[in-house]
Specification:
The chain is an alpha+beta fold. The chain contains 16 helices and 18 strands. The strands form four sheets. It has a seven-stranded antiparallel sheet, sandwiched between helices. A hairpin with a 4-residue loop joins strand 5 and strand 6.
Length: about 500
C-alpha cells in the first residue's frame, strides 16, 4: 500500500513539473500583444506594476499564492477559449479565476504564469417562470441574492458571500442549506465550459454527462466554467430565517460543547445550522465562543429547537428574524464583512466531521487558549466549526456526482493568523503550524471517518488525494482527467492524476 501511494504521489508531482516547465524563451508580453490574436474589444491585458494587473490578480489569501508575469481579462467566452489555446500551445502555465477566493497551497505551485481573470463574467439573470438562475463565471452570492429574493426564490449558499459562486460549485458547495436543499452543486442544471483544448461546450445531465458528473466536486481540474445555470427554490417560510448570535465565556465552554455533541448522528434538524467560532476575548484576555445558530423556519419553532443552548444563559444574546438574502451579512455579528477583505494571509487547516465529540472540542478550546497566552502576537488565530445538517445532501445518490462526503455533519478549521502575516521563519507562525497539525490530527482521529478527510474547497493541499476526493471516486476522476485534460493544463488546484489504482 505504501509503495502504491508513493507511486501515485510521484505521478502527481511529475505532472505538475511538466506543466511548470515553462518555455523561458517565450516573451509573454509580446505573445499576448500580437495583433494576430484579434482580441475582442473590451479584453484587457495587463502586466505587473500596474493597477489593472493588481485588480486582476489580487487574491483573498496571500498564503502560498500563485504569481504571474501577465494577466488577461477576457471580454467574452471566445477570448477565454482563445487564451487557453494560446497558453497551452506555448506551454505557458495559467490559472483561471473568478472570485479569487481559493486558498489551497497547491495554487502556489504556479509561479511566473498567466492569470486568466474572469472578472468581466459577473452577470446574472433570473427566469421567474422556471425558477432558474444563470450566473457568470465570477459572479458572487452578494451580487445576485437580493434580486433572487425579490423574485420569490432562495438557493443554497456558501458560508460567506465573497467566493465566486461557480468556484464554490465546482468543489460542491457546503453551507447552511444542505439539510433542506443539498449542496450548491446539487442545484446545478448546466454549465458553459472551456475545455483544455480551448473548445466551448455545454455540460449537463444530457450533454457531456461524464464531465457534468466530475464538474460537481472536482471541476477545477476539468475546465473553465464561464456560465452556469441553477434551479432555485420557492421561499421557505416566506424567506424569513431566525438568526441567533450567542457569546459564551471560557467557563461555559464545556456546557456549550455538550449541547453541540447532542446533535451527533441524525439528531440535527434539517432546518438548523450552527457555526461555532473560538476567538480571543480582549476583555477577559482568554478564549471565548462566538456562536451563530440559524433556523430556516418560523421564529417560535426555531426557539424551541434552540432551547438547549439558550438554557445555558449566554451573557450576550442577539436574536432576530432576517430575510435569507441578509443572513450571511447578519450572522455572527456581521462577521462576513470582516472575513471577505482580500490580500490577507490565511493559513488554514480543515477536517470533515461526522461526529461532534464534546471532549475533542473542549481540548481544542483549551489548546488554543494556551496558545493565546504563549503567543500574544497570534491572537487573531481562530477555530471555526461548521455544523450543517445533511438530510437533503445525503438523500442524493452517492454516484450522482464526484463529491464524496455526503454523510459529513460538519467541518472544522483552525486559521493561523500572526502579526508577521505567517512570514517564513517566524517562530510564532511555526508554533501556529505545529498547533494546527496537532488539532487536525485530533479532529481526524475522532471525526467518525477512518482517517483525515476534507471538503476539497477547504483542502490545505498537503492531504492525500483520497482524503480530498475519496478513494471510490478517484478511478473515475482520473479517467475523466485523462480524457478531458490529457496535457494537464489545469494543474494547480488540487490536481488529479491521470491514473489511480488506490
Amino acid at each position: 500500500m505504501h509503495i502504491k501511494t508513493t507511486i501515485v504521489a510521484l505521478i502527481e508531482l511529475w505532472a505538475i513539473s511538466v506543466v511548470a516547465a515553462t518555455n523561458k524563451s517565450i516573451d509573454i508580453r509580446s505573445l499576448l500583444s500580437q495583433g494576430s490574436n484579434n482580441w475582442s474589444q473590451g479584453t484587457i491585458i495587463s502586466f505587473p506594476n500596474s493597477t489593472t494587473f493588481d485588480n486582476s490578480t489580487t487574491r483573498w489569501s496571500t498564503y502560498d499564492a500563485p504569481s504571474y508575469l501577465a494577466a488577461i481579462s477576457p471580454a467574452n467566452e471566445a477570448d477565454v477559449a482563445k487564451t487557453v489555446r494560446l497558453a497551452s500551445s506555448h506551454k505557458i502555465p495559467f490559472l483561471a479565476t473568478g472570485g479569487r477566493h481559493g486558498y489551497t497551497t497547491t495554487l502556489g505551485d504556479l509561479q511566473g504564469g498567466l492569470a486568466i481573470d474572469l472578472s468581466q463574467f459577473k452577470s446574472y439573470s433570473i427566469d421567474r417562470a422556471a425558477g432558474t438562475l444563470t450566473v457568470g463565471g465570477a459572479t458572487t452570492l452578494d451580487e445576485f441574492q437580493d434580486a433572487l429574493y425579490e423574485a420569490g426564490y432562495m438557493i443554497q449558499t456558501p458560508s460567506i458571500s465573497c467566493p465566486g459562486y461557480v468556484g464554490v460549485t465546482v468543489g460542491s458547495g457546503v453551507g447552511r442549506f444542505t439539510g433542506l436543499f443539498g449542496l450548491v452543486a446539487d442545484a446545478l442544471i448546466s454549465a458553459r465550459l472551456v475545455t483544455a483544448e480551448g473548445r466551448i461546450i455545454h455540460v449537463s445531465r444530457r450533454q457531456n454527462a461524464d464531465l457534468f458528473w466530475g464538474l460537481r466536486g472536482a471541476g477545477a481540474n476539468l475546465g473553465v466554467v464561464v456560465s452556469a445555470t441553477y434551479q432555485a427554490h420557492k421561499l421557505v417560510n416566506q424567506g424569513q430565517i431566525l438568526n441567533a448570535d450567542l457569546i459564551f465565556p471560557a467557563n461555559k465552554s464545556k456546557e456549550y460543547f455538550d449541547v453541540l455533541q447532542s446533535f451527533t448522528g441524525k439528531k440535527l434538524p434539517a432546518k438548523l445550522a450552527i457555526v461555532t467560532l473560538i476567538v480571543f476575548d480582549p476583555v477577559a484576555q482568554a478564549a471565548q465562543i462566538v456562536a451563530n445558530w440559524v433556523y430556516i423556519g418560523p421564529r417560535e419553532e426555531g426557539l424551541r429547537v434552540m432551547a438547549p443552548v439558550l438554557a445555558l444563559n449566554p451573557p450576550v444574546t442577539n436574536i432576530q428574524v432576517v430575510p435569507w438574502n441578509k443572513l450571511i451579512s447578519t450572522a455572527a455579528g456581521g462577521a462576513d464583512a470582516l472575513l471577505c477583505p482580500k490580500n490577507v494571509s490565511h493559513n488554514t487547516w480543515w477536517a470533515n466531521l461526522r461526529r461532534l465529540p464534546s471532549s475533542t472540542f473542549q481540548a481544542s478550546f483549551d489548546e488554543l487558549n494556551n496558545f493565546y497566552k504563549q503567543y500574544p502576537e497570534a491572537r487573531g488565530t481562530t477555530i471555526n466549526a461548521e455544523t450543517f445538517p445533511n438530510q437533503a445532501m445525503a438523500a442524493v445518490p452517492d454516484n450522482d456526482s464526484a463529491y464524496p462526503w455526503r454523510d459529513a455533519l460538519g467541518h472544522i478549521q483552525i486559521g493561523v493568523i500572526t502579526e508577521s502575516g505567517n512570514a517564513a521563519g517566524d517562530p510564532t507562525a511555526e508554533a501556529g503550524n505545529s498547533l494546527a497539525r496537532r488539532l487536525r490530527d485530533r479532529w481526524a482521529a475522532t471525526s467518525g471517518y477512518p482517517e483525515l478527510s476534507v471538503y476539497v474547497n477547504y483542502a490545505r493541499g498537503d492531504e492525500k488525494l483520497r482524503q480530498r476526493y475519496g478513494s471510490r471516486k478517484l478511478p473515475r476522476l482520473a479517467a475523466l482527467k485523462k480524457k478531458w485534460d490529457p496535457g494537464n493544463v489545469f494543474a494547480y488546484n488540487n490536481v488529479l492524476p491521470m491514473e489511480y489504482r488506490g
